[in-house]
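Notebook p. 47: complex prediction with beta-D-glucopyranose.
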Amino acid sequence: MKINILPVIIFLLAGIFSVNAQNAIDKKVDALLSQMTLDEKIGQMTQVDYDAIKKNVDDIVKYYLGSILCGGNSEPDDITAKGWANLYDSFQNLALTTRLKIPIIWGIDAVHGHNNVDGATIFPHNVGLGATHNPKLVEQVAAVTAAEIKGTGMQWDFAPCVAVARDERWGRTYESYGENPDLVKMLGAAYVKGMQGKNLSDKTSVLACVKHFAGDGGTTNGKDQGNTEIDEETLRKIHLQGYVEAIKAGAKSIMVSYSSWNNEKLHEHKYLLTDVLKRELGFKGFLVSDWAAIDQLGKDYKSDIEKSINAGLDMIMIPNGYGQNNNYVDFITKLKELVNENKVPLSRIDDAARRILKVKFELGLFKNPMTDKQLTTQIGSKKHREIARDAVRQSLVLLKNDNKVLPLSKNLKRIHVTGKSADDIGNQCGGWTISWQSKSGNVISGGTTILQAIKNTVSKNTEVTTSTDGSGAEGADVCIVVVGETPYAEMIGDREDLSLAKEDAEAIEKAKTSGVPVVVILISGRPMLIEPSLKISDSFVAAWLPGTEGQGVADVLFGDFKPVGKLPHSWPKNMQQIPINIGDTNYDPLFPYGFGLTY
Ligand code: BGC
Ligand code: BGC
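Predicted complex, structure tokens below:
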């Protein structure tokens, strides 16, 4: 038998090259670190929100800041791709005037596409991607998102969220791929691979930030930033899996969770941050705090800093500027004092700065700090939108299809489209779109609403009539009712009652009284209580938060694409059943995890 040893040799050589590259980077980091003052090292550990510093941009130079972020509501006046790229470049130019010319790393929440940029491609939120159960697709979604981020110069995405949402009352359920750790770890790792590409230094590669470590989706009663009350075995089995897999996939940054584990806040949890994550799981990247999260550790900011840095945090996210409590100057001053008082060891500062600088070298940031303007023009391109459209198609879950009402013919005489979300790109996109909470209506340019998509799809001879309240379907061949949640993010979306809004239930009822077949499309970030609306509808589609490419919904409605989506959550019958998750004893959901019809 002949053995082909060429692949083996290539494999070994590749290994040697990457070890050599790593050694070369380590040398550069050591050389740089040996020249750095304490102020410069602490600067690297400081991440300031754009809003907090925009009136004092020279502080980037004065304090040697290592990182800037834009939170959900921080943005330049010009929110086009060009405007964002200009903002980024102007800040980076400042950073490059510092003594050691260390570039800043810029973080942003591109959690379903580059969602703060007007005209960007907006993908389904993670719950929808969860319904696809398709890691190849998620890898593509992440790669496109990375390319759009790079088009604005930035190179760090606060995603993927690998929360395992165990209680749908949680307002961040849609940021999670689903209730099952196997699904979350598969898609989270795929996202990291797509985002970071083959090499972090590639033109369209972006650093992923896996969040929120750990147990954010397991809090009691689904309370945002709450307390996860479970034993260590359960924490590891359910909530740590996403991190294990993401680290294997090469993740080099992780964001720590606001939440607590058995009453101890994660931001001061040395055991989980240092012993488990950095030592046991071998995480070599850096840990960033959540937004002002260390401020919650106690009444005294200085001791908050001491606890969090000693627990293993490497970079602190600071949204406060002059005149506010706990602003970035406070942070820098107090951390420096703590080092001088030997309360935070210098070795900890060196370790943090080393981890951050290493990633900056790996990103090729020292070589290519500025925006590649060629990439700016491809934001929201047709090619990118096609991938989002495909993601939408694959994310739809068909829950009911009596009398085979779906797929619809494109040659019907009249289709009536109704419901408050039929023609609403804001509702379709959900939270984290242009602004943190986002809103209904025309929040973003580009994209296609479901109504527009239906009009684009039917034949010339088909009349499409509309209303918003369910009325007017009499005499049509079919009535499509698009209803559901309106945008929210984080704790603002925590709910005690997941019933459909009254106006939505009434719209479905009204449509039913017209006597024509009723197809309901539910736009939501999570399963909702859909009885009795489900009973009176003929077909029912869970469309999650599909994003800008509503055409993907029409592709499925009219049979150009058969439904393939499967539930990423067990669908509850009533509030009393929540939390309900696959594997529970006495499991009796309305629809089980993994359910989904097709035609
Ligand atoms: C959220 C994070 C987000 C950060 C920055 C926090 O409130 O919990 O997910 O990355 O803000 O916007
Ligand atoms: C910011 C978000 C952040 C949130 C935290 C908002 O003002 O825009 O990015 O996640 O505050 O509370």
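Notes: The domain at 396-577 is CATH 3.40.50.1700 (Rossmann fold). The first strand starts at residue 46 and ends at 49.
Next step: compare against the earlier run before touching the bench.
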